[in-house]
Amino acid sequence: MGPLVHDNRLFFGGAKTLKSYDKEGRLIWSVLTNKKTTGLSIKDSVIYNVRRGEGLFANDIYSGKELWNLKPNYQMLTASGPTIKDSLLIIGNFDYKEGEGNHLTCISINDKSVKWQLKNNGYFNNSAVIQDNYVIINSDSAYVKGYTYKVDLQSGNVLWRTETNPVLFYQSKIMAENVFVPSYDDGIYCLNMEDGEVMWKLTDEYYPDSELLLYDDILYFGTTSREFVGVNSLGKIIFTSKFEYGIGNPFVYNQEVYVNDGKGRLFKINIK
Fold first, then answer.
1. Is 238 in contact with 230 (CB distance < 8 Å)?
2. What is the pLDDT of residue 144?
3. Which residues pair with 257 in a beta bridge?
4. In 164-215, beta strands by DSSP E
5. d(C-alpha 171, C-alpha 81), whole Å
6. What percentage of residues in the chain have a pLDDT greater than 90?
7. Cα-based distances in Å from 190 to 59, 107, 199, 237, 261
8. pLDDT digit string (tens) for 138-156?
């Protein structure tokens, strides 16, 4: 998994270790986990890390010392990365036993307890997106069907569910009253945040093959046809740029959008 940057430090979760480096690349600490880390998130001075089949672990960001852990009652499937809002942490696929287990779990990090759990009938979840007091989560089963949910953060109540057949590799993005969902069917679905209604969708020509980046009211992403695309909030294609060697994940630096290609070259995007 990719690094997490916090307070001039880099944090990496590997196949068997959790590591911290300074900005010069010097190792600060290393913790043996013996399990693959599938997600990282930092809150205050704690790095929360999900370990495949093991559970949720909390480590001190300065020393790497384990502070506490929370393990599932039954078994943990390949879990999504943790998402934190205030004192609440959302994680998918945390606790599962057929007919009994739960696939979406809200954990209070203050008292290390489960606040609520949401059964999801065998579906897998990707990392949640939290805005205000709501959770947006994508769930999918065997790449053939799936849904986007809006869930109340405090209670776990489902407010709406829309069939989107989402791509779980990439998170949805929220802009104003719209939710942008990467989809196997139509590239991008745009849902109304209030009621989950489909506002518009692209064709499968724009099937996403990178993380979505939302910046300055434009949605950026790479496609499987090696095009880098910009879309506005109304679903209009602002630009397309053809790449020969594949497309990396776009990012913002000094208020400019950058993306790399498969040959390691870096490009700055000029939408003018």
1. yes
2. 65
3. 252
4. 173-175, 178-183, 187-192, 198-201, 213-215
5. 11
6. 63
7. 37, 29, 5, 13, 27
8. 998 766 689 999 999 999 9
What is the arithmetic mean of pLDDT over 27-38? 92
Query: What are the CB-based long-range contacts (under 8 Å, 24+) for 35-40?
Result: 37/1, 37/13, 38/1, 38/13, 38/78, 38/79, 38/80, 38/81, 39/1, 39/13, 39/79, 39/80, 39/81, 39/82, 39/91, 39/127, 40/1, 40/4, 40/11, 40/13, 40/81, 40/82
Residues of the chain with CATH 2.40.10.480: 1-71, 73-169
Q: Are 208 and 187 in contact (CB under 8 A)?
A: yes
The arithmetic mean of pLDDT across residues 114-119, rounded, is 90
Phi and psi, residue 228, nearest 5°: -100, 130
Q: Contact at 8 Å (CB) between 157 and 119?
A: no
> Which DSSP symbol is given to 11?
E
- The CATH class for the domain spanning 1-71 reads mainly beta
Residue with tokens 């004192």: 87
* Number of Cβ within a 10 Å radius of residue 218: 18
Contacts of residue 109, defined as CB under 8 A and 6 or more positions apart, other chains included, come to 43, 46, 48, 58, 84, 87, 88, 89
Q: What is the pTM of this model?
A: 0.88
- Domain 73-169 = CATH 2.40.10.480: yes
Q: What are phi and psi of 120, to 5 degrees?
A: -140, 20
Q: Which residues are bridge partners to 10 per DSSP? A: 5, 21
Instruction: Output the pLDDT for position 178.
Output: 94
Gap between the Cα atoms of 193 and 209, Å rounded = 24
* Distance separating alpha carbons of residues 169 and 160, to the nearest angstrom: 22
Q: So what's the pLDDT on residue 1? A: 58
